[in-house]
Write a structure and sequence with these properties.
It is built from eleven helices and 14 strands. With 355 residues, it is of the alpha/beta class. The strands form three sheets. It has a seven-stranded parallel beta sheet with strand order 8-9-7-6-12-13-14, with helices on both faces. A five-stranded parallel beta sheet has the order 2-1-3-4-5, sandwiched between helices. The protein has a two-stranded antiparallel sheet with strand order 10-11. The chain is elongated, with a radius of gyration of 21 Å.
Length: 355
């Protein structure tokens, strides 16, 4: 039985670029371009008629730009959308704005896309990435999409510097930006808890994301650094290129951060969770979000074994569901929910578990 290809709507103000994108997508049997649009306004008129499974959307366009169109798409016609734009750069706020408005992921459009033929070897890797991301995004259910309304957090009440007694640790990879935007700004500050996130992406992206998240969050979002006291009300983020472990006693827990010797093998999440389970047992909560690979499953299993809590993002709401599926197969999580519900579950867990 032949699987029905995913229907794609291609949006770009350049007819040359649109055709180049169409050529790339239709080189895959998994995708079928059912329409194209030159601006946001035209996009909104075509979605109800074409009912695409996935939209590729440029940012800078006349009449209605991509971000404005994205807001309308998520409110009136929730459809998985990938930002495909040359305007996307490492760690820029507009990238994260697009994800906050509901985009599933972003792809940096090759600058010479409209000039090179489909057979040009210099574009082959990028073409494969475009096809892969679009196929994955098309599988995400529309119920998992959300226009995230956030307000800047002024952090008007400074926290007293004190060590934490509870830790919430996250493992996240590809497709995790949108999930973290739905979670971290909603985390409540208490007098006992700190948060640590291992995020598999480049340092350039993550450093910009740390600043962006901190702008909207009650917790203090900052990079994880070596030999730092884990303070209540703080959220520490590190890339998978580092090993972060926790040492010491409750109230005086510190981090040890070192380069991961084999970062391509992806063991940073497990490493962190094993150290958290050893030092905090039932006062720990592990969270697995969207991501490729299997890292985090064994560490989460250990947190559960010592009496801590476990939350896994429901696989149908993940862009990459490998990490979530593997964790589900290995351990019994108390909670399996879409990313939009995870902050509530974390806050509830902490309400009943904080000493």
């Amino acid at each position: 039985m032949v699987k029905t290809p995913y229907k794609v709507l291609v949006v770009d103000d350049s007819s040359i670029i649109r055709q180049a994108i169409i050529d790339i997508l239709e080189s895959s049997e998994a995708l079928k371009v059912v329409g194209e649009a030159a601006n946001g306004h035209e996009t909104l008129t075509k979605i109800p008629k074409l009912k695409p499974d996935i939209i590729t959307l440029d940012i800078v366009m006349p009449k209605m730009d991509g971000l404005t169109a994205l807001k309308h798409i998520m409110i009136f016609h929730p459809t998985p959308t990938i930002i495909l734009s040359s305007f996307i750069q490492d760690g820029t706020p507009i990238t994260f704005d697009a994800l906050r408005y509901g985009a599933i992921d972003f792809i940096n459009k090759p600058s010479n896309l409209g000039e090179l033929s489909l057979k040009d070897n210099s574009l082959e890797v990028q073409k494969e990435q475009i096809i892969k991301k679009i196929c994955l995004a098309a599988k995400v259910r529309s119920t998992a999409l959300q226009y995230i309304r956030l307000k800047p957090n002024q952090k008007t009440t400074p926290l007293k510097k004190r060590g934490c007694n509870n830790l919430v640790v996250f493992g996240v990879g590809e497709g995790g930006y949108g999930s973290l935007l739905k979670i971290v700004p909603k985390l409540k500050v208490n007098n006992s808890t700190a948060f640590i996130i291992i995020f598999y992406d480049t340092a350039a992206h993550i450093n910009g994301f740390i600043r962006y998240l901190n702008h909207f969050s009650a917790v203090n979002v900052q990079p994880a650094i070596n030999n730092a006291l884990l303070e209540v009300g703080s959220c520490y983020i590190s890339t998978g290129e580092e090993y972060v472990t926790v040492h010491g006693e409750k109230g005086r827990l510190t981090t040890y951060v070192s380069p991961a010797p084999f970062s391509s093998r992806r063991g940073s999440i497990d490493m962190l969770m094993f150290s958290v389970a050893e030092n905090l047992d039932r006062d720990s909560l592990g969270v697995i979000l969207s991501g490729a690979g299997t890292d985090g499953a064994e560490g989460l299993e250990e947190i559960v074994r010592v009496g801590g809590g476990a939350i896994i993002q429901s696989p149908v709401s993940c862009l990459y569901n490998n990490m979530a599926l593997y964790a589900l197969n290995l351990c019994e999580a108390e909670v399996v929910v879409a990313d939009r519900e995870i902050a509530t579950e974390i806050n509830n867990f902490l309400t009943y578990s904080v000493n």
